[in-house]
Amino acid sequence: MVSMISLLLLSALFVNHLCSATNDTITPNNFLRDGETIVSNGGTFALGFFSPANSQKRYVGIWFNKVSVKTVVWVANRDNPINNSSTGVVKIDDKGSLVIIDGNSSDPVWSTNVSIPIKGLFYKLMESGNLVLYDENRGDFLWQSFDFPTDTFLPGMKLGLNLKLGTSWSFRSWKSPDDPSTGIFTLSMDGTASPEMVIKKASQKIWRSGPWNGQGWNSVPTMRSPNLNYNFMNDPNEIYFSYSVADTSVFSRMVLDYLGLARREIWDENKRQWNTFRSYTDGDCNSYGKCGAFGSCNSNNVQICSCLPGFEFKSSNKESQHCVRKRKLLCGQGDGFLKLEKVKLPDTSNATVHMGWSIKDCEVECMNNCSCTGYSSAYVDGSGCLAWFGDLVDVREFTEGGQELFVRVDAIELENSERHSSLAKKKLVLLCVLIVVGFLIFFSAVYYLCKKARKRGLVHRERLRKEILNSPSSEAYKEANTKFELPIFNLNSVMVATENFSLANKLGEGGFGPVYKGKLPNGCEIAVKRLSKNSGQGVIEFKTEVDLIAKLQHRNLVQIIGCCVEEEEKMLIYEHLPNKSLDFLLFDKTRSTLLDWKVRCDIILGIARGVLYLHQDSRLRIIHRDLKASNILLDDKMNPKISDFGMARIFRGDQCQANTRRVVGTYGYMAPEYAMDGLFSIKSDVFSFGVLLLEIISGKKNSGFYHEDPTMNLINYAWELWKDGRILELVDPSMGTSFPEQEVVRFIKVGILCVQEKAKDRPTMHNVIFMLGNETPIPSLNQPAFVLTSNHNSANASAGSAPSLNEMSITIFEGR
Ligand SMILES: *[C@@H]1O[C@H](CO)[C@@H](O)[C@H](O)[C@H]1NC(C)=O
Ligand SMILES: *[C@@H]1O[C@H](CO)[C@@H](O)[C@H](O)[C@H]1NC(C)=O
Ligand SMILES: *[C@@H]1O[C@H](CO)[C@@H](O)[C@H](O)[C@H]1NC(C)=O
Ligand SMILES: *[C@@H]1O[C@H](CO)[C@@H](O)[C@H](O)[C@H]1NC(C)=O
Ligand SMILES: *[C@@H]1O[C@H](CO)[C@@H](O)[C@H](O)[C@H]1NC(C)=O
Ligand SMILES: *[C@@H]1O[C@H](CO)[C@@H](O)[C@H](O)[C@H]1NC(C)=O
Ligand SMILES: *[C@@H]1O[C@H](CO)[C@@H](O)[C@H](O)[C@H]1NC(C)=O
């Protein structure tokens, strides 16, 4: 492994060393004075002397060379600065160590402490920000700054333990923003049982990540983000966590600041600031052991602390409340386990770990040992066993993510809980019966009244009603008047219709799970969206989707015709549309020739009307939040229909913008304020619509758009063409040459207007439709949003779909 990395680094090194004219190295023959810098080969990092703001002291450090606000990532002599003078020099001494020397003094203020022959040695600043010592005689690295981190965790660095050498890779904060000397906070790996990242203030733990759950850290629920890859290594030689960045044009860092906050940040050159992408340690429940032993913290509750089942607050002293057992636990006398879901697992430092075990083995082990207080699967896939033999400390409840924890409770607690759940079941049954009876009474009443009405000769009015319903402009009427009873399909009939969910019937993989084609006994074709069991979508999200779609009716929205909830299965049944989704036609060279300008224009207008309906015309105000080509289905007449409302959220009319803790959506279509800050509004849908419009006209995907310049995306490309007055070059060649140029240009212009950086510069859907349809002056365009580029297949992945390593959806949890 290590030699692999060395090899890779080596080849990079040689190539650079031979071809490069930049001064990125320090050799025995040259040195670096205060005021001079060396710059890595691609220009990303620089090394030299610096003084922090409000300080006279001189430090040698590495900083981002292309970030316009000096951001230091590493400091060599952090605890031994040169005082108040610019007489410092960096050079290689006669033992091969890189040293910092003040003027003519012979004692270095800092040294890499190596001792080897200096022939063939050089120190080189790599593009990763790593300063390495390379020995041409041995062909190896002998020292690297990545092994001596300060407060910044860069891609390629490690956080962990080198068990072979007994050393660690850990991060120490600065003392203050003006003082890089070793501060009080440490970010390190606790490897005693199941490895966890921890932040300590001096020797006191103040935060822990929870154990590694096979996909991420237990308390950082969705770590996946489009541009980052995570790597966790746990073998007898080393335990470490590291990450890499797919798009290196995005500057990204993780920093432990002088207040002990750990943040992941991305540089925003437009605003000239570091945007916090995720803050790990904010919020009350993040502070270690907030609710004491056997307590549980939930930041959504008014009173954030509660006790685990079987425990209660000791009430004697209100100030120092802590959780104690309600009753003495009589081991082996009817005691057992209660399950908690979506929790941050307790501190594992005294837990036992058995990676090969199943959860059943785990239960047996814990049951048979009276000092065992709880257990859980180690990994989210259900494998491995963690068992606790003492206090359960630092448990949290999440609304999403987390893992299951089984807590040992006494016999009475167990009995009560069982009684509770059976009582709840009984109540549910009773409720259902009441509802059914209610419906029966209601329908017989309706039936009776109708009969009576007909008898009175009101047939005429009924005919009128039918006429209105069938007239083309009756959407609003229908919406207001049609009362649904959404048909519930049973699992069996769905399985028959889809031939047992056969692969041949699979239409694709949408958000939350696969979609199958089916045929009902009456010949009707249906599309069945089978929500994956481990999609993370709960009953509530499912209901949201069903409720929303069932209430909405519009020519440009996919019609839901039923649902199925049975056993573990949750399914939505839609009308089947024969022409598949827009991306299937649009991004294919041959199929896209089916789409001439007339068709594309109608598709764009249809989508616009559908979105307008969601935003404005339906009784609910709905923001779709995942508009993209694969969510636009086409019927046999090529009418577009918007699908996938699972992520839509009901907006009350008085709210125009909301901040969400969870960002869902698809990379490449997300507005910058949504992707970065989780702010969504109807204007973020307008942004996605703009991207979609440009894609429909160009036949190219926004993300994964490769021109000569790989950092270019469709938006940037369109903007460049616009500025150069060559905008018609954007038009998809498959569209042929005969199209009304004026109109196409107007459409593109509206598209660019929709992707403006600032939400307030983007039009509403109402304006969009007006501008598309009329020769009106269009506001002048500004530079559109800088959009993070990402991998080419990103359009297929949708947030909330089953987790996979390549998932491009972005989910950000703030304030965790
Ligand atoms: C290296 O090059 C940069 C700019 O190219 C220059 O500012 C700097 O002084 C040079 N450093 C040395 C040690 O020559
Ligand atoms: C700077 O000053 C501090 C205390 O005033 C002293 O301990 C340290 O040695 C000085 N550093 C140098 C390089 O002279
Ligand atoms: C540092 O240098 C400045 C001017 O060069 C001087 O005014 C100041 O007193 C010096 N401070 C120390 C601590 O030597
Ligand atoms: C360092 O030594 C040089 C000559 O060896 C001398 O000219 C210079 O003044 C000295 N600088 C200091 C700060 O002592
Ligand atoms: C080099 O050795 C000195 C003295 O043992 C030590 O204080 C310093 O931290 C070491 N430097 C590095 C980079 O390890
Ligand atoms: C783990 O055990 C040690 C030693 O008994 C104890 O000091 C510490 O509090 C325990 N940690 C937890 C989380 O229970
Ligand atoms: C229970 O588990 C603890 C911790 O693993 C162990 O020290 C103890 O010997 C076990 N007791 C029994 C009866 O197995």
Automatic annotation (TrEMBL):
Its EC number is 2.7.11.1. The chain crosses the membrane at residues 428-450. Residues 23-146 form the Bulb-type lectin domain. It is found in: Cell membrane. Pfam families: B_lectin (PF01453), PAN_2 (PF08276), PK_Tyr_Ser-Thr (PF07714), S_locus_glycop (PF00954). GO terms for biological process: recognition of pollen. It is an enzyme of class 2 (transferase). It catalyses: L-threonyl-[protein] + ATP = O-phospho-L-threonyl-[protein] + ADP + H(+); L-seryl-[protein] + ATP = O-phospho-L-seryl-[protein] + ADP + H(+). The keyword Isomerase does not apply. PROSITE patterns: BULB_LECTIN (PS50927), PAN (PS50948), PROTEIN_KINASE_DOM (PS50011), PROTEIN_KINASE_ST (PS00108). One of its GO terms (molecular function) is protein serine/threonine kinase activity. Belongs to the protein kinase superfamily. Ser/Thr protein kinase family. This is Receptor-like serine/threonine-protein kinase.
